[in-house]
């Protein structure tokens, strides 16, 4: 339960940082989405 929230929160923060700061954060967000897609989407 906490793991799902933490992964969703981190991916959201990385996407926001990707818009505001640098495109490198988009790469980290995509990597996080790729490795933890079950926790994020819950399937």
**Biggest sheet descriptor:** none
Q: List the domain count as a whole number.
A: 1
- Reading the helices and strands in chain order gives HHH
Which residue ranges are poorly predicted, with pLDDT under 50 across at least 5 consecutive positions? Answer: none
Radius of gyration: 10 Å
Proportion in β-strands? under 5%
Helix content estimate = over 70%
Alpha-carbon distance between the termini?
14 Å
Number of E strands: 0
Principal-axis shape equals elongated
> What is the mean pLDDT?
78
Assembly classification? single chain
Number of DSSP helices? Answer: 3
Class from secondary-structure proportions:
mainly alpha
Can you describe what's shown?
- The chain is mainly α and 43 residues long.
- It has one domain.
- It has three helices and no strands.
- The chain has helices at 2-20, 24-35, 37-41.
- The longest helix has 19 residues, at 2-20.
- It starts with a helix and ends with a helix.
Topology at a glance:
Elements: H1 2-20, H2 24-35, H3 37-41
Helix pairs in contact: 1-2
Could you give a quick summary of the protein structure above?
This protein is 84% helix and 0% strand.
List key phrases describing it.
43 residues; mainly alpha; 3 helices
């Amino acid at each position: 339960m906490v793991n799902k929230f933490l992964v969703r929160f981190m991916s959201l923060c990385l996407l926001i940082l990707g818009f505001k700061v640098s495109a490198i954060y988009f790469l980290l967000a995509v990597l996080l989405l790729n490795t933890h897609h079950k926790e994020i989407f819950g399937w």
